[in-house]
Amino acid sequence: MTDFPHTTRLVDRFGRIVNYLRVSITDRCDFRCVYCMAEDMVFLPRGQILSLEEIQFICRAFVELGVGKIRITGGEPLVRKGALGLLQQIGQLPGLQELVMTSNGSKLARMADDLKAAGVKRVNISLDTLDPVKFKVLTRTGDLENVLKGINAARDAGFERIKINAVILKNRNHQEVADLVQFAVDRGLDISFIEEMPLGTVDSHNRADAYYPSQLIKQDLQQRFDLVAVPDKTGGPSDYFQVSGSDSRVGFISPHSANFCASCNRVRLTAEGRLLLCLGNEHSVDLKAVVRQYPGDIEALKQAIITAMRIKPEKHEFNIHEQPVILRHMSATGG
Ligand code: SAM
Ligand code: SF4
């Protein structure tokens, strides 16, 4: 990818530079993870979501404004028809330094090589348990064996620093954190543990009861591993630790117990074209309306994006002890 002479930077009221865009290319998914979705989800009508061309156009505007990193996510990004072609096009945008993706792994066994060839640099793959029965309970429709094959395929394809994402719920999978780290260490992968966030209503559990703080996960891990703090180079919300004697790092994403908002460098584009300025707030701008009102006018779109930075909130408003104030699910948001 070539360098691009950026003249404009995206900066918010608090002086934070936005250089990272996450894009949900579909709200649909082949899994129904209990922390992410209700069992009988109603998805957006197809006409309401951005076309592939609109997504590519919006990504181009962001890159021209100085965004160097784009993460493609969802829902499950790989269930969207045409996802691969879209990734190829985004991967070729002049000035983009990093195209990365988050996936549940279900389609990686057959798509990993093509994704690598399309220019995807790194993949995060979700894996909350190594027990096939628990996996079925947590994802409702997923198959562990298939995801493990996907992880192997991603390794064989040669992606840099594959990362496992695990959402930890008390009494569901908290007992497995050390086994998950061992799984990552044995394969030279990184792993991040994520505290559950109250996005949308879920019907399988009470989020406050299922809360298992990062601090406890860390204590559990320290019984089996020596964890050495490493400085975060990503500007992201994770606290990172090196597992001594291995190539693997363990990250903790702790929206409840640690506030990472001061260094926030990212915004999110939902599948229906809403630019979300913060994961834990509803402040947004309808970019679909802009691209449909001014088709092909990239300057109008860029101006709307620059103006949107003024309403990026200072911090998120998560509180797991209250009814969710954020009604959208993570799948609609683009985690
Ligand atoms: N389908 C892909 C996957 O599962 O990796 C990508 C989208 S998913 C919404 C992105 C990440 O968000 C996953 O790692 C998932 O575990 C996490 N996630 C979903 N709902 C969450 C919630 N309520 N709290 C915290 N993390 C959540
Ligand atoms: Fe699908 Fe990912 Fe949400 Fe699970 S976490 S339901 S795999 S979008």
Task: Explain what this protein looks like in three dimensions.
With 335 residues, the chain is α/β, with parallel strands linked by helices. It has one domain: Alpha-Beta Barrel (TIM Barrel), CATH 3.20.20. It is built from ten helices and twelve strands. It has a twelve-stranded mixed sheet. Helix 3 (108-117) links the parallel strand 3 (98-103) and strand 4 (122-126). Helix 1 (52-64) packs parallel to helix 2, helix 1 crosses helix 9 and helix 3 packs parallel to helix 5. The model is unreliable at 1-6 (pLDDT under 50). S-adenosylmethionine binds at residues 29, 35-36, 73-74, 76, 102-104, 126, 165, 167, 194, 196-197, 199, 330-331, 335.
Quick overview:
With about 325 residues, the chain is an alpha/beta fold.
The molecules bound to the chains, other than polymers, are: S-adenosylmethionine, iron/sulfur cluster
Give the total of beta strands.
Answer: 12
Radius of gyration from CA coordinates: 19 Å
Average predicted local confidence, pLDDT: 90
CATH architecture: Alpha-Beta Barrel
At the first level of CATH, the class is: Alpha Beta
Oligomer: single chain
Tally of individual helices: 10
CATH topology value: TIM Barrel
Low-confidence runs (pLDDT<50, min 5 residues)? Answer: 1-6
Overall structural domain count: 1
Order of strands across the widest beta sheet?
Answer: 7-8-9-6-5-4-3-2-1-10-11-12
**Helical amount:** 25-40%
Assign the CATH superfamily.
Aldolase class I
Helix/strand-derived category reads alpha/beta
Note the gap between the termini.
26 Å
Globally, the shape reads: globular
* Major sheet attributes: 12 strands, mixed
Binned strand content: 15-25%
User: Could you spell the SSE succession in H and E letters?
Assistant: EHEHEHEHHEHEHEEEEEEHHH
